[in-house]
Amino acid sequence: MRIQPWIIEEQRRRERRRSRWEPVPLHVPAPEPRHGDRDPRQRDEEEDTGGRVIIIDMNSLGESSA
User: Fold this and answer.
1) pTM score
2) Which of 43, 23, 25, 41 is nearest to 33 (CA)?
3) Which helix (H) or strand (E) holds 36?
4) What is the pLDDT of residue 59?
């Protein structure tokens, strides 16, 4: 009985797929901070009080809406 070449190729393809490197998924939780580690970014007063919203009217900058 002769094995067809496409069967051998399919077996090799499946074997490669099983042994392929898999990246670490993005949903893995971050490691817990160790004792003594600082907060990476300190919050400022504006952030604590809600901050500011700046609205710029683009039409008032000299652009005409023709």
Assistant:
1) 0.26
2) 41
3) none
4) 78
